[in-house]
Design a protein that fits this description.
Radius of gyration: 29 Å
Number of domains: 4
Distance between the termini: 57 Å
Number of helices: 23
Largest sheet: 7 strands, mixed
Strand content: 5-15%
Strand order of the largest sheet: 1-9-8-7-6-5-2
Helix content: 40-55%
Number of strands: 18
Length: about 600
C-alpha cells in the first residue's frame, strides 16, 4: 500500500464537509505515513471509552463526572495538549479574556470549555474546544433558547467573533474539527471515538493532526499551514476538473455529431446548437451532483446494495473499467447500456422510485427534469417521460466511461467529492458557461494551439487561399493561429500521415475522401480528441466554441464570502431594530 493510498484510506473513514486536507499535502509532510500512537496510550483510551460508553448506556448517576473525565483524557493524554507547565490547555477561570460571543437576538452566550494557547505569544488562542453532553447531536438544531442553530454552527459564530480559526466540538462520541478561516469556506471534519479501536488508523490520524505538535512544530508543518496548502491544491483540482469536464462536453457533442450524421441529420433535427450545448453541460452537472450526493451519503438509498449495483454513478465507472480491463476499451464502443443506466438514475432522482425492493423520494427540480431535454432520451419536444416511449441516444459505453473519468479522476487518482465544496463545483460550472455550440458555416480545422493563441482554429478555404500565395503565407497564418514557433509549423507540415491516422481523419470527415485529402497536409497541426480523432468539422457540423452569453448576461459564480456579506448587510436592517439607528449590536431587537 502506498503512502498516498493510506492517506486516502483514513480520509474515507472520517466525515468531511468542505475543503479538507489534500492527500498530496499529507504525503509531503508525512512521507513515512501518520505518526504512530503509543500502545499504552491506545489501550488507556480504549478502556476509558468503554467506561464512558457503559456509563452512558446504563444511565449511571456519575455520568456527568465520567463524561468530563473522558473529554479531559482525550485532550490531555490522547492529544498531549497539556504541557508540563499546564499553560497550553486552559479552562475555567484560566481562560484568556475576550473569548466569548453573545447572540444579539437571544440570551445565549457562548464560551469555550477549553482553549489551546500559545503561552509564548501573549496567550494567543490557537484552538477553542466546546464540550456538549453525550445526548447532543452536533448537527441538530438546539431548541428552546431562542437561537435555532446546531452546536457546530454556533461554534463557527464563536470562532468568527473571536478571530480564532480552529475549533474542536465534541459530545464525547464525535470529535469535530472546525476550520473557519476568515473570508473562506468553513470545513467540518469528524472522528468517532467508537472507531478508534475498530479502525486504528482513525485514532492515528486524530492524534497526528490535532496533537500538540501540529500547533508548535515548524510553521510549514502546523495544522493551519497544512489546511492552507490544501486549499491551494484544491484550486488546482478545481482548474483541472473544469478543463476535464469541458473536454468531456466536447466529446459528448462530437459523439452526438457523428450519430446525427449517421442518421441523415434526423437525430438532432429541430435542436438549436445552443440548446445542444446546454443539454451536454446539464448532463455533466447532473453527474457532478450525483457523485457529490453519493459520496456524502446525502441520499439514504446510497447504502442500498441494489442502488450501488444498478444505479450509482460512482460504481458505474468501476464496472466499466472492469469490463475494459477484461476485454478492451474498444469493446465498450459496441455497447450502449451505460447511457440508458444514466438516464434511469436521472429519472429516479427527478420522479423517485416506489418499489418494494427500492424506494427513493422524488427530488424534482429543473436540473434532472427529463422533459427539459427530451432528445437525450430519443423523444421529441412536447412528449412526456411518463407516457411516451424513450429511445435513448446512441452514446456508447466508451464515451460514457470518458465522461465519468473526466469528473472522477485527477492525476491518476480518484477525486474525493467529500473534499470539494459547492464553491468548487460552482467555479467549474462558471467556466463551462464560457462556451457554446455552433454549426460550422464552412470546413473548420481546430488547431493544436498554445495557450497564447487567441483564435485556435482556421477555415480550410482560408488555408487554401493562403496556399495560392505560397508556402510562407500558409506558415505565417498557422503560426499566428497556433501561437507556435515557425519551425514547429514547418516540421508539422512536412510530416506524412500514416494509414491509421488517415482512417481516423476520414471518419472525422464523415467518409468524404475528397475532403480528407484536402485536410491531410495539415493533419499534424490539428487538435486530437480523447479518442484519437482529429478535430476537423465539415460544413454543418456541431462544434464547441467560445460563447458570449456569460459576458452579455453578466453570469458569474459569486463566492460565499461575498454573498454572506451581501445578505447580512441587506437583511440585518430589515430584521432588527438598531442597525439603521446606529445602535451597538448588543442593543439590537428583532
Amino acid at each position: 500500500m502506498t503512502k498516498q493510498t493510506r492517506h486516502h484510506e483514513w480520509l474515507s473513514l472520517i466525515d468531511v464537509s468542505g475543503p479538507f486536507l489534500a492527500a498530496p499535502v499529507l504525503e509531503k509532510v508525512f512521507p513515512q505515513g501518520l505518526e504512530s500512537v503509543d500502545p499504552l496510550k491506545r489501550r488507556h483510551l480504549r478502556q476509558a471509552y468503554d467506561e464512558w460508553r457503559e456509563a452512558l448506556d446504563l444511565e449511571d448517576p456519575r455520568l456527568v463526572d465520567i463524561h468530563q473525565a473522558w473529554g479531559e483524557l482525550v485532550l490531555t493524554e490522547g492529544l498531549d495538549l497539556n504541557d508540563e507547565e499546564g499553560d497550553t490547555l486552559r479552562s475555567g477561570d484560566r481562560l484568556p479574556d475576550g473569548l466569548s460571543y453573545r447572540h444579539p437576538e437571544s440570551s445565549v452566550t457562548l464560551n469555550p470549555a477549553y482553549v489551546v494557547v500559545d503561552d509564548q505569544h501573549e496567550d494567543k488562542p490557537l484552538m477553542l474546544v466546546a464540550v456538549h453532553g453525550p445526548e447532543v447531536d452536533l448537527d441538530s438544531t438546539i431548541e428552546g433558547d431562542g437561537w435555532a442553530t446546531s452546536p457546530a454552527e454556533r461554534m463557527v459564530q464563536l470562532y468568527r467573533a473571536t478571530e480564532t480559526r480552529l475549533g474542536l466540538v465534541t459530545n464525547g462520541e464525535r470529535w469535530m474539527l472546525v476550520d473557519a478561516p476568515v473570508g473562506a469556506v468553513t470545513t467540518f471534519a469528524s472522528w468517532y471515538a467508537r472507531l478508534w479501536s475498530q479502525e486504528p488508523m482513525t485514532l492515528q490520524a486524530f492524534v497526528t493532526l490535532l496533537g500538540i505538535n501540529r500547533f508548535f512544530d515548524a510553521k510549514d508543518r502546523r495544522l493551519s499551514a497544512l489546511l492552507d496548502d490544501s486549499l491551494q491544491h484544491q484550486d488546482e483540482v478545481t482548474d483541472a476538473l473544469g478543463k476535464q469536464v469541458q473536454r468531456a462536453v466536447d466529446v459528448l457533442i462530437q459523439s452526438l455529431n457523428r450519430a446525427n450524421h449517421d442518421r441523415n441529420q434526423e437525430l438532432l433535427k429541430g435542436i438549436p446548437p445552443g440548446e445542444l450545448y446546454e443539454a451536454a453541460l446539464t448532463v455533466m452537472m447532473r453527474l457532478v451532483f450525483l457523485l457529490n450526493a453519493e459520496e456524502r451519503e446525502l441520499m439514504d438509498v446510497v447504502k442500498d446494495e441494489r442502488f450501488q449495483t444498478y444505479y450509482a454513478v460512482s460504481s458505474l465507472r468501476i464496472q466499466l473499467r472492469e469490463q475494459a480491463g477484461l476485454h478492451s476499451e474498444e469493446l465498450l464502443s459496441h455497447r450502449r447500456d451505460a447511457w440508458s443506466r444514466l438516464l434511469a438514475i436521472f429519472r429516479a432522482i427527478y420522479g423517485g422510485i416506489e418499489h418494494e425492493a427500492l424506494r427513493m423520494p422524488a427530488l424534482g427540480g429543473s436540473l434532472f427534469d427529463p422533459d427539459r431535454f427530451p432528445f437525450l432520451e430519443g423523444r421529441i419536444k412536447g412528449t412526456s417521460w411518463r407516457t411516451d416511449e424513450a429511445r435513448p441516444l446512441p452514446i456508447d459505453n466508451r464515451t460514457a466511461l470518458l465522461l465519468l473519468d473526466a469528473i472522477q479522476m485527477f492525476q491518476g487518482r480518484t477525486l474525493s467529492y467529500r473534499a470539494l465544496d459547492v464553491e468548487n463545483i460552482g467555479y467549474v460550472y462558471e467556466g463551462l458557461l464560457e462556451h457554446t455550440v455552433e454549426r460550422a458555416k464552412e470546413v473548420i480545422l481546430d488547431l493544436d494551439a498554445t495557450k497564447s493563441a487567441k483564435k485556435p482554429w482556421v477555415g480550410l478555404e482560408e488555408l487554401e487561399s493562403a496556399e495560392e500565395e505560397g508556402g510562407k503565407a500558409v506558415e505565417r497564418l498557422l503560426k499566428e493561429r497556433t501561437g507556435s514557433a515557425i519551425s514547429r509549423v514547418r516540421n508539422d507540415l512536412k510530416k506524412s500521415v500514416d494509414p491509421e491516422d488517415n482512417a481516423r481523419l476520414l471518419a472525422a470527415c464523415h467518409n468524404d475522401q475528397s475532403l480528407c485529402n484536402r485536410i491531410a497536409p495539415y493533419f499534424h497541426l490539428l487538435r486530437i480528441d480523447s479518442w484519437g480523432y482529429p478535430l476537423a468539422y465539415p460544413q454543418g457540423s456541431y462544434m464547441v466554441t467560445t460563447g458570449t452569453d456569460r459576458r452579455e448576461t453578466g453570469t458569474h459564480y459569486t463566492p460565499k464570502s461575498l454573498t454572506e456579506a451581501i445578505v447580512t448587510e441587506t437583511l440585518e436592517p430589515v430584521a432588527y431594530v438598531g442597525p439603521a439607528e446606529g445602535e451597538a449590536r448588543e442593543n439590537w431587537r428583532l
